[in-house]
Amino acid sequence: MSGNERLEGIGMTSRRTRQRMLERLQAKGFSDVRVLAAMDQIPRHIFVDEALSSRAYEDDALPIGHSQTISQPQVVAVMTSLVIGDGVPPDNVLEIGTGSGYQAAVLSRLVEKVHTVERIEPLVRLARERFFELRLRNVQCKLADGSLGWPENGPFDAIIVTAGNDHVPDPLFAQLADGGRLVAPLGPDGEQKLTVVMREGDTFTATQMNDVRFVPLLKGTQS
Ligand code: SAH
User: How far does the centroid of ligand 1 lie from the alpha carbon of residue 30, in Å?
Assistant: First the structure.
């Protein structure tokens, strides 16, 4: 299969199948057309193992190895919409938990720059290959403990955390720009709520949204 055929997909990995996924999201009430257009541009089947690619357009989380998962399309849609907000989209975005790279890829179609941090080395390598294959030149990925953020590239207009924790690590608050927003699954295991934190000066205001289930935010890196 040529690189182009792989990207375009066929049958269960075709653009038509992807569009049906988007129609199902809309049927469930998701209506942010900017996010739907971005998700139409990014072939999700490239972000899962070939053996699972026929399931890439179902609304499910899927395993990506190393006990990690690619988030459910509906969760990616909702989080992306919260990250870009209602007005002018943020310029510089930080993601903690690259995983497959899918969430970063979708965001890259909507904002100027995406910086994404992952603690598992093989996942970083695979995600970089996918960004390269899709020519997503505004995404940078590094291996690190994302609890520390990415201070050299901050401050960030928006930060998205895609691993669950009971609190936001302090360095992330410090790297959030004034007027910026942070989206994270927060709460004890099994009771996480998607939470949006807005920063105005030194005031941080949190709003809780729907229940979600993410793999845990862990310390350190792993090769
Ligand atoms: N956004 C991903 C899905 C996230 S799965 C996607 O679109 O596919 C959560 C990811 O967070 C996992 O890959 C896990 O290894 C990573 N992770 C957990 N703790 C982390 C930390 N402290 N720093 C960076 N990445 C972390």
Answer: 24
Residues 6-38 as b/e (b if ≥16 CB within 10 A, e otherwise) read beebeeebeeebbeebbeebeeeebebeebbeb
pLDDT at 207: 98
Using a 6 Å cutoff on CB, does residue 148 contact ligand 1?
Answer: no
Helix/strand/coil for 24: helix
Domains delineated in the chain: 60-212 (3.40.50.150)
pLDDT band at 1 (very low <50, low <70, confident <90, very high): confident
Q: For the chain, what percent of residues have pLDDT higher than 70?
A: 100
Query: Is the CB of 61 inside a 6 Å radius of any atom of ligand 1?
Result: no
Its pTM stands at 0.97
* 3-class secondary structure, 126: helix
